[in-house]
From TrEMBL:
Name this polypeptide is given: Ig-like domain-containing protein
GO cellular component annotations of the record: external side of plasma membrane
Start and end residues of each Ig-like domain: 110-184
UniProt entry keywords in alphabetical sequence: Disulfide bond, Membrane, Signal, Transmembrane, Transmembrane helix
UniProt key word Transferase: no
Statement: the UniProt record of this protein carries the keyword Transmembrane: yes
GO molecular function terms noted in the UniProt entry: transmembrane signaling receptor activity
Gene Ontology BP annotations: cell surface receptor signaling pathway; immune response
Membrane-crossing segments per the record: 6-27, 212-232
PROSITE patterns: IG_LIKE
Organism, as annotated: Oreochromis aureus
Amino acid sequence: MKPASVSLLLGVDMLLLSVLTVSAVFLNVSPNRPQFFPGESVTLTCEGVHSPDGWTLKRRNYIEIKSCGEDFGQFDGSSCIISDLKAMSSYWCEDRSGQKSDKLNIYVSDHVILEMPALPVMAGSNVTLSCRPRYDSYRVRSINRKSESDRESFSAVHTIYNVQKSDEGVYSCSVIYTDMVMVSGHSRLTVAAPRPDPTSPSPPLSLSMLRVFCHLLVVGLYCISTILMLLICCSRNRNSGEEPAISMYDDVTADVTADVTTEHEF
């Protein structure tokens, strides 16, 4: 088989192996909130990192994309420490091959921020949202929620008990100073499915069997391609070591020629 075929099998092996070993990366933030005042600090960490290429933190502001350590923050392995937030930006983790985590929008406001979780919260937990003005002279007006179906307003501190997917939406808050109304950034509250209870019944058989079948299919394809590659290599090595065979026809022709030559010698 041609070298191109061997290279193709090697590529299939590497692809299947990557399917078995790659794990998702996600962006963690501390403190866990999406809005800050200017000059505050935040630590962003790429977690779940198993890529051999390594990951770095990227930031997009209004004009350009930069990596942590270039002109913002200090990068330490998988964490980026930003000690002086200045403007709204989007952050995400990215490796050299272009794989990316989900983006996190961090808002920086001079007047008011809404303190709420930046990361997804588990369904069934309690979540508290708090409107925080920068100056005591500001009077909190309300916390506002905008969803696909409606708009709602709440008091300065709003606790959602037993949060569910229906509580998702974009939240903001506003304050009043004399005649002016100032609004915070708009941040999305995301509710994730609760972690499975070890004592709860196992998932339906059909779903479990589907997952098992997918894993077995990937492992089976990987094994088959590996065996084919080994057989090809062994076949090529055996053929290169064989000596050319001598045909029986050549032997008979040589004997006849020798007899004729001897018969005409006097």
